[in-house]
Design a protein that fits this description.
This protein has 304 residues and is mainly alpha-helical. It has a single domain, classed as Ammonium transporter fold, CATH 1.10.3430. It contains 15 helices and no strands.
Length: 304
Amino acid sequence: MSYIISPAPHVKFDDSVPKVMCLVLWALTPATLAGIYFFGWPALFVVLTCIITAVLTELVMNKIMKQEVTIADGSAVLTGLLLALTISPSMPLSECVIGTIFAIAIGKQLFGGLGYNIFNPALIGRAFLAAAFPVHMTTWTITSATPLALMKFSHQLTPYWNLFIGNVAGSVGETSALLLLLPALFLIKIGVIKWRIPVSYLGTVAIFGGIFWVVKPGLYPDPLFQLLSGGLMLGALFMATDYVTSPLTDKGKWIFGFGAGILVVIIRLFSGLPEGVMYSILFMNAFVPLINRYSRPRILGRGK
């Protein structure tokens, strides 16, 4: 019998960064097309502007920082698309450009590029836009408030079917729960998305939010409304599961999802904001190094 001695890693996969990025981009295509269908040409222009700006910014930053050009890995395209899906379809294109530059230059490249960023770059860009241009970020092409705003400030429930298919006011790609969930389930099946964060995130929102609904059903929304409305599906399935900014360990993933879910419910129900997905994920991103440290398995032969 012969033995082969080789350096680690000993378990190898045929996945690569461009392949994973491509699969996620394809998974986001249905929700993107739905946003263009519901919101029209403005949504298309927002998507194209964010993607093109993200690629150009990445290229410029690679040159400035004297790095290898990384636009071929698809991460800049994905960041641009994710940012576009989280902002209003009526957002001025000049502001889309500013937010995307901030997402790539500050949220990603300033930390060293892909694999080194602490926070999700697309959400960093959205947080910047929300702070810099709050009026435009909450101006919708469908002339009504978002379902979460209607519920929070008017105690008015949006029909579940509209929430499910996406025919409601909201950001470009967050409205259709159906077209986010089905592609994500496929990515979970093939192992691109790890299921623990989405399950713990969505489950915590349903259970924790459901407690308040049981206590005061007329004041607080029911669990199904919580799950289908706002950017929860997009955030739980495609943002919180980002490889770089989420925990490495299985236990850590449960902690991450649980913490983000608690924060979403608290922000939605008790703050002055109708939505809290972005802040919940960014807040938990900051604790990922700590979660990794205290959730790592015990090394064989060592004590706790």
